[in-house]
Amino acid sequence: MSPILTPEQAAAVTPAATDPALIRNFSIIAHIDHGKSTLADRMLQATGVVAPRDMRAQYLDRMDIERERGITIKSQAVRMPWGVAGPDGAIRPYALNMIDTPGHVDFSYEVNRSLAACEGAVLLVDAAQGIQAQTLANLYMAIEGDLAIIPVLNKIDLPAAEPERHADEIASLIGCEPGDILKVSGKTGAGVPELLDRIVDAVPAPVGDPTGPTRAMIFDSVYDTYRGVVTYVRVVDGALKPRERIEMLSTTAVHDLLEIGVISPEPTPTAGLGAGEVGYLITGVKDVRQSKVGDTVTSAASPATEALAGYQEPKPMVFSGLFPVDGSDFPVLRDALDKLKLNDAALTYEPETSVALGFGFRCGYLGLLHLEIIRERLEREFNLDIISTAPSVVYQVTTEDRAVHTVTNPSEFPEGKILDVQEPVVRATILTPSEFVGTVMELCQSRRGTMQGMDYLSETRVEMHYVLPLAEIVFDFFDALKSRTRGYASLDYEMDGEQSADLVKVDILLNGDKVDAFSAIVHKDAAYSYGLKLTKRLKELIPRQQFEVPVQAAIGSRIIARETIRALRKDMLAKCYGGDISRKRKLLEKQKEGKKRMKAISSVDVPQEAFIAALGADNPTGKDSK
Predict the structure, then answer these.
(1) Where do the DSSP E strands lie in 131-277?
(2) Which residues contact 64 (CB under 8 A, 6 or more apart)?
(3) Less crowded by CB within 10 Å, the N or C end of the chain?
(4) Dihedral sign of CA atoms 285, 286, 289, 294 in order
(5) Which has the closest alpha carbon to 241: 226, 264, 259?
(6) Angle at Cα 97 formed by Cα 91 and Cα 101, nearest 5°?
(7) C-alpha closest to that of 474 among 563, 382, 371
(8) What average pLDDT score do residues 104-131 get?
(9) Residue 12 to residue 38: CA distance in whole angstroms
(10) Cα distance between residue 263 and residue 267, in whole Å
(11) What distance in Å separates the CA atoms of residue 549 and residue 74, rounded to the nearest whole number?
(12) 3-state class of 377 per DSSP?
């Protein structure tokens, strides 16, 4: 290949971005904790787009949550200049558009839409850990998109690194020679210039019609308080220029382009974006519903007639209710969800009312970590206090009259005789060291899993395939898997239709009244243990009343578990310091009658803290760390 440039020379390169042949669009994909963001940092340094004094770890991770947890939640696009010396010695200036993607399975949707904007993918594998489940999932996603794959082994500086053994694994997986796999260190920067040269050489230039009708795909968008909606696009055909009028094909909304530019790595205005380029648009629009991820942007003067393909709509898999602690915050919560939806197109929501919790929203998420991140962002970025109900999945329930009900909330579960309940199942891929095969099989069987097959990737690593109910893995399956395999196993899953299951709705009754917020749909075999656990928990959380309160778990009209919150006893005899015993008995009988009447007409006062503690069940989600 060509001579490698120094960072100073690379920084002096000005990409001739108008020529699609000098543009390379690529994504970094990997499993969690394989060093994507660290490698991206070294690339920013090698290309000189970030001054040494401005450099910080995880430079592209913009959110506080990302930096605190050491995870990537949002894909981030950045443009870097890189010069390659040709055979004649002249330096050709290239523009490299890189997208750093998340690694956790909950955010694979971010990876999907990032790959739709690229022609190549850097497949990053930890030289100490080897191929993991999400590595395979991301690789298959890139192959389906017909992307050029550049296999790279990272963390070769670690004492535990085994680059030769893992290079053989990768080579057998994608059908290349072990010698073709690049070895880099995101920590020290070793091998990064060679990787940038390989990207220029192996990733094809974008294909598009520079003179045809303008078509650009929206692959991300954010909300700026002062400038409105900022839309990130990949131009496929034609060109976009400042001050021209653009049209969104799905909504037919027309806007004026106030500013157009590239992210390098901060927003930098330019004179336009040509075919193959990645950049941002600002139209000044404040309505967050005007910029839909996956939509096609075209010129209003000569619009394109056909929208761009290659983008999949996300399907929420887990549902949970979000309710403001203070009912007056409902409009604030609605606006906050609108803005988050713009930034995270996988979030879905619709209004919901609960007898116990008031007005709120039923939200759909891609997984439990996604739920946790959304809730934390609402609390931090919008200063909201929120109660989140227990997560549930979508069920199809057939009643005796053959009517089919879609149930996303336990309170929607129909009463009466149930003919059939269909629950969503997933096809799970588990990669584990061979010594843990038995414990993994035991875990999956306890979660109603069905084994589909098992493949040995090498003498020490096994790939196991299971079909599991989604409801069984969204809570603590990932955590249980990690603890049983000492952290070595990895999990990836995708939807695989529905299956019939023996499910029941467990209601919680306080003083005989149902509390809809505590209802849950569980398997018949687990109903008793769930009811017992929740009644015990509520007995500890709900303060004692002036009367005795029964806390019951019920399936239909049948009580399966009960705890009793003892009554507070007021000392009615404090003033009786003598006299006849009949006077004391008379006072106690009077108190007894009063408590009986109070129990009949009073409702139980459940404080918000009890809802938060009972519904915020510690559901370990596993941390996506780098």
Answers:
(1) 148-154, 182-183, 215-224, 228-237, 245-248, 254-256, 259-263, 267-269
(2) 380
(3) N
(4) positive
(5) 259
(6) 140
(7) 371
(8) 75
(9) 23
(10) 5
(11) 47
(12) helix
Please check whether residue 217 is in contact with residue 233, taking contact to mean a CB–CB distance below 8 angstroms: yes
**pLDDT tens-digit series, residues 304-313:** 777 777 555 6
State the pTM of this model.
Answer: 0.65
User: Pairing relation of β-strands 23-30 and 120-126?
Assistant: parallel
> Which stretch, 6-20, 239-253, 279-293, 341-355, has highest mean pLDDT?
239-253
Beta strands in 127-213 (DSSP E): 148-154, 182-183
SS3 16: coil
Name the residue with tokens 């990690």: 482
Closest CA to 414 of 432, 394, 400, 393: 400
For the chain, how are helix, strand and coil distributed in percent, rounded to 5? 30, 30, 40
Q: CA dist 63 to 58, 67, 78, 365, 610, Å?
A: 10, 7, 16, 19, 31
Please report where in the chains the tokens 């002062």 appear, as a residue: 226
Identify the DSSP state of 240: B
- Rounded-to-integer distance, Cα 475 and Cα 478, Å: 8
User: Which uninterrupted H or E stretch holds 279?
Assistant: strand 278-282
Q: Are 254 and 309 in contact (CB under 8 A)?
A: no
Counted residue by residue, the chain has a size of 626
Structure tokens at 230: 């900022």
Report residue 307 CA to chain centroid gap.
Answer: 27
CA 494 from chain centre, in angstroms, equals 14
CA of residue 393 relative to chain centroid, distance: 15
3-state secondary structure 92-135: EEEEEEEEECCCCHHHHHHHHHHHCCCCEEEEEEECCCCCCHHH
- The burial class, CB within 10 Å (0-12 / 13-18 / 19+), for 67 is middle
Burial of 255 (0-12, 13-18, 19+ CB in 10 A): buried
User: Nearest to residue 296, comparing CAs of 241, 343, 247, 242?
Assistant: 247
- Helix residue ranges per DSSP H, 602-625: 608-615
pLDDT digits (tens, 9 = 90+) for 469-482: 888 887 778 778 87
Token couple for 406:
């879609």
* Sheet-wide strand order for 120-126: 76-85, 91-100, 23-30, 120-126, 148-154, 182-183
For 100, phi then psi, to 5°, come to -85, 120
Q: Which residue has the tokens 């009063």?
A: 594
Q: How far apart are CA 282 and CA 270, in angstroms?
A: 12
CA pair distance 492, 415, nearest whole angstrom: 36
Counting Cα atoms < 13 Å in the Cβ hemisphere of 30 gives 30
